[in-house]
Amino acid sequence: MALIQNPSLGGGSSNAFVLPLTQAVTSGDFLLVNLFWKSSLQTLAATPMTDNTGGGSLTWTQNGSTLTWGNYSLAQYYVQNCGVGSSAATSVTAHFTAGGGDVALWLAEESGIVTSGSPFDTTALYTRINQPAVTSFSSGAMANSTQATLVLYGMAVSNTSANVAFAPSGSWVQLGVHTPITGDGDDTMMMRQAVIVTGAYAATGTCTSASVSTSVVALRPIASPSSGGSGGGGMDGGLNGGFQ
Fold it and tell me: Do residues 24 and 89 make contact, with C-beta atoms less than 8 angstroms apart?
């Protein structure tokens, strides 16, 4: 499994908030979206996520339920074994019934995730929590994982200010740079970590004193890495030289 791209964008929204991708998606890959928005000002549309795949959008499925605290919400959507239609998607769009609120949208395209059956570990389910006024944040631990070889994605968002100095801790690796929404003073960060032993994993990091909402999810690769041998970065596709 390997991270292919992880574009992100934050700003004020209209009824449709469009995230341009770094490149067209690849058939068979897994797409994961984390969506943060000011839900006191806007409600998600009946079809909240679409893309511009030629011939019609892929079908986006929500993972778990929406986390709402105060005026804000955080939700996660995915496409498993994505198709490319007559042309592959180059953007994704979050849809609302009204504009005017602030939005941050993060996408991760991961290759090598199972293409049938659940893409998620059967016991280490999507976990998220809100913590007020913290300098060290945690999603809370998922249940102990069933599968040893997994790729984990963590998301941290804050409505305290546009820069709360987010930084991952432990073996987590930050993806790209933090993506702020300067108009409303919000901050977001996405993280990734590959693991090869079962465990009760949590997304963790540090920040300046802030209200932080954090989530973590565990994805199942198609196959475990072979032991021994030579060459390459192994299952993790060479990201930073192997497992994170």
Answer: yes
Q: From the CB of residue 128, how many other CB atoms can be counted at a distance below 10 Å?
A: 23
Write out the two tokens for 56: 């019609």
- In this structure, are residues 23 and 5 in contact, taking their beta carbons and an 8 Å threshold? yes
Report the distance separating Cα 201 and Cα 186, nearest Å.
Answer: 26
Report pLDDT digits (tens) over 118-138.
Answer: 999 999 999 999 999 999 999
Within its chain, how far is the Cα of 121 from the centroid?
16
Pairing, β 44-51 against β 8-12:
unpaired
CB count within 10 Å of CB 39 equals 19
pTM given for the model: 0.90
Residue partners of 236: CB distance under 8 A and separation at least 6: 1, 2, 151, 194, 242, 243, 244
Distance (Å) of CA 128 to CA 92, 95, 106, 233: 23, 22, 16, 31
pLDDT, tens digit (0-9, with 9 covering 90-100), for 35-84? 999 999 999 999 999 999 999 999 999 999 999 999 999 999 999 999 99
Distance spanning both ends of the chain, measured CA to CA? 12
146 Ramachandran zone, left/alpha/beta (phi>0; psi -120 to 50): alpha
- Kindly compute the dihedral angle of the four CA atoms of residues 25, 28, 34, 39, in this order, to the nearest 10 degrees: 90
CB-CB neighbours of 135 under 10 Å: 12
